[in-house]
Design brief:
Blueprint: H1 3-6, H2 20-30, E1 34-38, E2 44-49, H3 50-58, H4 74-85, H5 89-92, H6 106-116, E3 120-125, E4 128-134, H7 135-144, H8 155-167, E5 177-182, E6 185-192, H9 195-206, E7 213-216, E8 219-220, H10 237-240
Parallel strand pairs: 6-7, 6-8
Antiparallel strand pairs: 1-2, 3-4, 5-6
């Protein structure tokens, strides 16, 4: 799916000469957090958001001592004054707007929003605003996407695929994990170094084609019961030790060791 498939097309916009109060009214009325700013021809020239309006309320023009001008960037000071004292949308809006093409895959858009820490991105075609994609649009697309069909894959193939993928991950300790598969139901046995690695291993297995279910029996190494040694009192170790301590209780090859 691409931006054009999920974007909101009937976008609420505003003119740069509109008063700030009008921008605030539209945000509240339409329950949105950002407004694209367009010119008379529909070209995107900026974006005004809740954050822009809040920053204006928090800031106030600062009067610096006369010598301050020699150590400050005049352009930056002018921009700060414009945004804090401005009364129109053009004064307070963000001009450097991140935009996307209508053909951009939604997976790439999701990555862009996450890495840039933004909530929405305008969709622009030939300089004109075509729509807007928000985080809510991406979540809606995920909910409406049909579930992937389970592919029939041989169990040996699944075990090999899980092992190959683990071998390629820098966080995975492949030698401590035993993978078994029966009719697409994967069981994970062995030792890992952390809860994070335990969860990530299950996620990796779940994403392998043909896997229908993952049963995660991995144990975190720091929680494994250590071997206990004691005075046998003349008895053999095999006779003196309780059955549950005569072997490693977390031996992944021993079905009786399963939790």
């Amino acid at each position: 799916m691409r931006a054009t498939d999920v974007m909101t097309k009937n976008v609420v916009t505003i003119d740069e000469n509109a008063p700030v109060r009008e921008a605030a009214r539209l945000l509240v009325e339409h329950r949105i957090s950002g407004l694209p700013v367009v010119d008379a021809d529909g070209h995107l020239i900026g974006l005004v958001t809740e954050a822009d309006l809040i920053a204006r309320q928090q800031a106030s023009p600062t009067h610096h001592p006369w010598w301050h001008r020699f150590f400050s960037d005049p352009e930056r000071l002018a921009e700060e004054y414009r945004r804090s004292a401005g009364s129109t949308v053009g004064d307070v809006m963000t001009r450097a707007v991140i935009c996307v093409d209508p053909r951009m895959p939604i997976e790439a858009i999701a990555t862009l929003l996450e890495r840039r820490g933004i909530k929405r991105v305008p969709v622009v075609e030939q300089g004109r605003l075509a729509g807007i994609v928000s985080r809510a649009d991406l979540v809606r697309a995920l909910a409406e996407r049909p579930a992937a069909q389970i592919v029939s894959v041989a169990d040996a193939e699944i075990v090999r695929a899980v092992g190959d993928r683990l071998a390629g991950e820098p966080w995975a300790h492949r030698s401590g994990v035993v993978v078994e598969s029966s009719a697409g139901v994967v069981e994970l046995w062995g030792l890992v170094e952390s809860d994070g690695e335990r969860a990530a291993t299950a996620t990796l297995a779940r994403n392998v084609p043909g896997v229908r279910e993952v049963r995660n029996y991995l144990a975190v190494r720091s929680r494994v019961m250590p071997y206990v040694y004691w005075d046998t009192g003349g008895l053999s170790a095999e006779t003196a030790a309780p059955p549950e301590l005569r072997k490693d209780p977390w031996d992944p090859q021993d079905p009786a060791a399963r939790p």
